[in-house]
Task: inverse folding
């Protein structure tokens, strides 16, 4: 245990990553609110809305593995900094692209996805070097809760800004905030503790003793070895199954409230915030539970399987009940319970990359999140097609099937032990 007093440098790194991920989802979810007045203005069908929503994932898919390779090779500071400034500029340009027409808008959203695509791999690579094993679950949970906080802020403020300043304002204001973060990042971050000029000798020694390896920047990636491991494939396939439902909620929740429950723009935004608040709290609770269980002697494998099983089976159950609701209150409560249990995944599969391959955590996150993003691309687009000829119960039913498949694969093949 680190007994030195005062604020630790690793806390600063975690805090900056938290803010980056908050901005990440602020810039992502503002479209889920803005899409309502945009669709009315441009006369878009549900299929077109699904196309616009999914276009972000086209670029996001491209840089998942590349982001991990770059971060493990050049350092997370460079790669995460690049990602934030790139997606922030793309966000600012979104209204101008929309004015030019649908093709230009799709390109702008894809470009934004390119920037956000490197964020998770770069962060995972950095924290595998900065965060001791005993603090990993709660540190990652805190950083990922930045995404949920970003959803809360984005969904909460977007309706107000749109009503006052027009839908274009959310892209200009949120995108500009990334530029401020970028300046802070350049001044205060380091890719690993060994290159950090501000870290104390005591903290550097503690981190060195309590991470799986020094994890110097990697010059080559053992792809054949990585792809030969069953736990790697369990992580990849489980990430796909998890993200199918997660990204549908991320992109379609306000539309669901509007179409099914008849809520206006402001109300849709407000009720969309509540599940993300639950998720932000639950992720950190799950992180503390996971680290506490490990400290009490539970195996890392048992903890990861327990946390991820909650992250799968909770949403599967609560989403399956949405077809029976008749009031806004019932729907919101089920959404909150679904997202709250989903957040336990931060101490399950999202913490598992550094467990099984600490030297290649960024690359492994890139691989698994590629599968997760593919689920976002297909699931978001498919939801629009389903709704053109089917119902929301059909949408939730498909998500439940993927959650159940993920539960089975994860419990059969996942491990918390180092395999690479």
Result:
């Amino acid at each position: 245990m680190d007994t030195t007093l005062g604020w630790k440098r690793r806390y600063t790194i975690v805090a900056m990553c938290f803010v980056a991920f908050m901005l990440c989802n602020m810039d992502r979810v503002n479209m889920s609110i803005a899409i309502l007045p945009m669709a009315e203005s441009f006369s878009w069908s549900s299929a077109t809305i699904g196309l616009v929503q999914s276009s972000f994932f086209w670029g996001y898919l491209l840089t998942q593995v590349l982001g991990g390779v770059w971060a493990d090779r050049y350092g997370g500071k460079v790669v995460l900094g690049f990602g934030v400034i790139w997606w922030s500029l793309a966000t600012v340009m979104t209204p101008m692209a929309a004015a030019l027409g649908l093709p230009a808008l799709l390109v702008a959203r894809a470009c934004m996805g390119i920037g956000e695509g490197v964020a998770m791999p770069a962060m995972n690579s950095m924290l595998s070097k900065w965060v001791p094993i005993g603090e990993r679950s709660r540190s990652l949970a805190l950083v990922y809760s930045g995404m949920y906080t970003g959803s809360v802020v984005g969904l909460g403020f977007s309706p107000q800004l749109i009503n006052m300043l027009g839908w274009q304002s959310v892209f200009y204001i949120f995108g500009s905030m990334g530029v401020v973060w970028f300046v802070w990042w350049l001044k205060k971050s380091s890719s690993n503790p060994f290159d950090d000029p501000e870290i104390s000798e005591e903290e550097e020694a503690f981190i060195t003793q309590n991470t799986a390896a020094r994890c110097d920047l990697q010059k080559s990636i053992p792809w054949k070895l990585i792809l030969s491991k069953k736990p790697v494939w369990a992580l990849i396939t489980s990430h796909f199954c998890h993200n199918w439902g997660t990204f549908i909620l991320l992109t379609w929740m306000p539309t669901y409230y509007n179409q099914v429950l008849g809520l206006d723009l402001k109300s849709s935004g407000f009720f969309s915030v509540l599940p993300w608040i639950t998720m932000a709290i639950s992720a950190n609770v799950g992180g503390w539970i996971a680290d506490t269980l490990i400290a009490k002697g539970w195996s890392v494998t048992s903890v990861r399987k327990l946390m991820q099983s909650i992250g799968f089976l909770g949403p599967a159950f609560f989403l399956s009940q949405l077809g029976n609701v008749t009031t806004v209150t019932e729907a919101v409560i089920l959404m909150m319970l679904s997202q709250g249990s989903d957040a336990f995944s931060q101490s399950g599969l999202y913490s598992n990359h550094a467990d099984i391959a600490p030297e290649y955590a960024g690359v492994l996150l890139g691989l698994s999140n590629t599968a997760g993003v593919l689920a976002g691309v297909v699931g978001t687009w498919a939801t629009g097609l389903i709704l053109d000829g089917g119902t929301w119960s059909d949408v939730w039913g498909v998500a439940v099937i993927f959650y159940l498949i993920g539960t089975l694969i994860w419990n059969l093949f996942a491990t918390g032990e180092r395999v690479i």
